[in-house]
Design a protein that fits this description.
alpha/beta, Aldehyde Dehydrogenase, Chain A, domain 1, Aldehyde Dehydrogenase, Chain A, domain 2, 14 helices, 39% helix, globular, binds nicotinamide-adenine-dinucleotide, binds ligand LTNE7NMQ
């Protein structure tokens, strides 16, 4: 099915880059073929632009910065608000675009549009609150002020698993702060990005403020990292590419926001409500077919309730439906064949090292990307799945005997994005919330994200925060003014 055939609003189907308020093809005519992971069919071709367009996007964003950064915050907020309203008005079409290019179930896609909108809503307000701060002076006859000013052009690089929300979480914050943006979406999901650009154009962002540049990532982003005019780089994606961009940005000392991979521990103590813990673990593992940076990668269960938990979890996993996103199953397909191979490799490795495969471990049907919800139990600590992000529907469960042991297992990783904890003991909640080396700790629940919170990780899960007040401050410099009044 072609994307253009499933939209009520055909203006959302854009197959070109959006630079300086104009839609453009690649100067060398290159295109990307985008396929539906649900059936392998081509849904359309997107312009795959190169160095010329990448540089042009920065030229445009730099030229637009002077006016946009000086616009009243209320004006920026009003335009963001119009963008928000247009996204909501086109929610069904945006959700369908996402299903066709990413594969997720339509209910999840609709949920993502709401989530994406919530960031624009939040920052349309927050734009007005970049207040000047007065500091009580430490010097005689001096007035001390801190001003918050936009850093300049911001490069935003986003992954395929949340094709809209990862863009709005960055772009709304940067635009509210007064930055102009150049956005590079993943090659797997460029149509969501250009649909957002079509709505941004309609909202009235001046030319050059909002640019979307699809194509080969190393070519496009490679220009941006070198360019001194790009003052901030906000990246969401794998830790591997994050490390590369960190190195590449060092020559021009950019502000960096890195939202990288995770290896979340999901810790279940015997004193918790096991049925709740099972329900929450199923959500934390299988949402978006496990293709979520917050996905529960290691499910660690206290030995006294281990067997009960495993039986209930396996039963639940086996009831989950798997199918085509528009039919709204519980799980959709994986993004590509590489993701399928990774599941197979991690399952094989765990089994070879002594884990038991309780269910799944293969595709629902050969030739598809529909990987069965899979549960491995008694997974040994040296298995790959206990150290490498799975990013798929394979759950790894292992027992533990005491708090000290589980804390040590949970922290024995380079990652530190989110940890889940299930226990009724207030003192244990307090102790572990302190000692878990994670940027976010979810206690007796799975859903914790939203526009007002500072999303982000520690260690090699990233730098800086997105969302909330800190999300906007990431795109601002503090200028210190000291005035003599004697
Ligand atoms: N922490 C978070 O908020 C968060 C959110 C979503 C996804 N993720 C992570 O993202 C990963 C999955 O997404 P992905 O497969 O799209 O990640 P990825 O790192 O392969 O790609 C992310 C983005 O980087 C671009 N990119 C790829 N290679 C590049 C290069 N050499 N130079 C410049 N840019 C390059 C891609 O085109 C894409 O736009 C997982 O590791 C997941 O945990 C993190
Ligand atoms: N699930 C995350 C995105 C990571 O993949 C979120 O809620 O923002």
């Amino acid at each position: 099915m072609k994307l253009s055939q499933v939209l009520d609003n055909p203006a959302l189907f854009r197959s070109q880059a959006y630079i300086n308020g104009l839609w453009c093809d690649s100067s060398d005519g290159k295109v990307l073929d985008v396929t539906d992971p649900g059936n392998g069919e081509s849904i359309g071709e997107m312009a795959s632009v190169g160095v010329i367009e990448s540089m042009a996007s920065v030229n445009a964003a730099q030229a637009a910065f002077a006016q946009w950064s000086r616009a009243l915050p209320q004006t920026r907020g009003d335009i963001l608000r119009r963008w928000h309203d247009l996204l909501l008005a086109n929610k069904e079409d945006l959700a369908r675009i996402m299903v066709l290019e990413q594969g997720k179930p339509i209910s999840e896609a609709r949920g993502e549009i709401d989530y994406a909108c919530s960031f624009i809503d939040f920052y349309a307000e927050e734009a007005k609150r970049a207040n000047i701060e007065s500091v009580t002076s430490h010097l005689p006859n001096a007035e001390v002020e801190l001003w918050r000013e936009p850093v300049g052009v911001a490069a935003l690089i986003t992954p395929w698993n949340f094709p809209c929300a990862m863009i709005t979480r960055k772009a709304a914050a940067a635009l509210a702060a007064g930055c102009t943006v150049v956005i590079h979406p993943s090659a797997e999901t460029p149509f969501s990005a250009t649909a957002l650009a079509a709505l941004a154009e309609q909202s009235g962002f001046p030319a050059g403020v909002f640019n979307v540049v699809p194509g080969e990532a190393p070519v496009i982003v490679g220009e941006w990292v070198k360019d001194c005019r790009v003052r901030a780089l906000s990246f969401t994606g794998s830790t591997e590419v994050g490390r590369l961009l960190y190195r590449q940005s060092s020559d021009t000392v950019k502000h960096l926001i890195l939202e990288l991979g995770g290896l979340a521990p999901f810790i279940v103590f015997a004193d918790c409500d096991i049925d709740v813990a099972v329900d929450e673990a199923v959500k934390a593992k299988f949402a978006t077919s496990g293709q979520d940076c917050l996905g529960a990668n290691r499910i660690l269960v206290e030995r006294a309730v281990y067997q009960e938990f495993c039986e209930k979890f396996v039963k639940r996993a086996e009831t989950l439906t798997l199918g085509y996103g528009l039919d709204d199953p519980d799980l959709g397909p994986l993004m590509n064949a590489r993701a399928v191979s990774k599941q197979d490799e991690q399952v094989q490795d765990a089994v070879t090292r002594g884990a038991q495969l309780a269910t799944g471990g293969k595709l629902k049907e050969e030739g598809t990307l529909l990987y069965l919800p899979t549960v491995l139990i008694d997974v040994p600590r040296d298995a790959r799945i206990m150290h490498e992000e799975t990013f798929g529907p394979v759950a790894a469960i292992a027992p533990f005997d005491n708090e000290q042991e589980v804390e040590e297992i949970a922290n024995a990783t380079e990652y530190g994005l989110v940890a889940y904890l299930h226990t009724q003991s207030p003192s244990r909640i307090y102790r572990l919330s302190r000692s878990l080396q994670y940027g976010m700790v979810a206690v007796n629940r799975t859903k914790i994200t939203g526009a007002p919170i500072p999303f982000g990780g520690m260690k090699q899960s990233g730098l800086g925060r997105e969302g909330g007040r800190s999300g906007m401050e990431s795109f601002m410099n503090i200028k210190y003014i000291c005035r003599d009044w004697s």
